[in-house]
Design brief:
Alpha-Beta Plaits; 2 domains; alpha/beta; 6-stranded mixed β-sheet; 29% strand; 4-stranded antiparallel β-sheet
């Protein structure tokens, strides 16, 4: 039987009259990199705050490592490390001094500081003041702080947000190493689908507070019968309006072509007929396998309506 580091059941949460979460049930397999996907405002951070016992859901239940906060709060939190939004760093202190402040609070051996600095590859900059750190280095320092207690589970909220391309690559490689070499289960929220596609073994997609899909990343691709149709033609703007009238959605467009999700060969013929009947010149039709971004956009129905 598969074990789960995180299990939630029918979580509901309100901000006054606004329902932020609606019956959110998650199962995060132990040892996985679990991608928690959703557009901004979908409910990702609210869910994470509930997982960390910062918010209390009036409905539903939360278990980490098979335990609830009501009976084992201290034991749970010792096994969890978190990086939520931008880490809190004392800019006038060095990286090492920042970690020492936290080390004293969590009461771990001094030797652990050097261990986590090696893991996040900040040894060479450990004695530089944090005000001179790049954003990527600050993120890695925040992750080092989360690793001080050697937690079994890491909860990361948009860890690559705002990073430049090299910083994103560094963070991606670090997350993979933490999972594969250090055995960490990683719960990773993001709206950057291309990064999740490169990292995650399992995913959940949330939109407007509801989970729309949960399971293996490969299962998401296989479960979607959609492919993408690229249409090359004259007058793309006119074609977009014609296809919208025919209840098709457009995922991408430029001056010479447009792309839309389709479910069958019959839909290809229908698209072609709509365009030709509208007097447009169709130069080419080609299909490709749909990527995660297109599947996500279709699920959340946020294609170009």
């Amino acid at each position: 039987m598969e074990s789960y580091s995180i299990e939630t059941r029918e979580l509901n949460f309100y901000f006054k009259d606004f329902k932020a979460l609606s019956n959110v049930s998650l199962q995060v397999p132990t040892g996985s990199i679990f991608g928690f996907l959703g557009p901004n405002g979908a409910g990702k951070t609210t869910t994470i705050r509930i997982l960390l016992d910062l918010f209390h859901a009036p409905g539903g239940s939360v278990k980490l490592f098979g335990k609830s906060y009501e009976t084992a709060r201290s034991a749970i939190l010792k096994q969890v490390g978190a990086l939520i939004e931008n880490p809190s760093i004392y800019k006038h202190l060095t990286g090492r001094q920042n970690l020492e402040v936290i080390r004293r609070m969590v009461n771990v051996p001094v030797s652990r500081i050097d261990e986590v600095l090696r893991i996040v590859r900040l040894v060479d900059n450990a004695d530089k003041k944090a005000k001179h750190y790049s954003l990527g280095m600050c993120q890695r320092l925040g992750l080092a702080a989360a690793l001080l207690t050697d937690p079994e589970l890491l909860i990361l909220d948009e860890p690559t947000n705002g990073l430049d391309p090299s910083g994103i690559i560094e963070m991606r490689e670090l997350i993979i190493r933490l999972n594969r070499e250090h055995g960490k289960t990683i719960f990773l929220s993001s709206h950057i689908l291309s990064e999740i596609e490169k990292l995650a073994t399992d995913v959940a997609i949330i939109d407007q507070g509801e989970v729309l899909y949960q399971g293996k990343l490969d299962g998401l691709r296989q479960g979607s019968q959609l492919t993408e149709l690229r249409v090359e033609l004259n007058h793309v703007a006119t074609a977009v309006q014609v296809l919208k009238t025919g209840n098709f959605t457009i995922s991408e467009q430029n001056g010479q072509s447009l792309i839309l999700p389709i479910q069958s060969r019959q839909e290809i013929a229908h698209v072609n007929k709509l365009l030709v009947d509208a007097g447009l010149e169709v130069y080419g039709l080609s299909t490709t396998a749909q990527n995660l971004e297109s599947i996500f956009l279709n699920l959340t129905k946020k294609l170009d309506q």
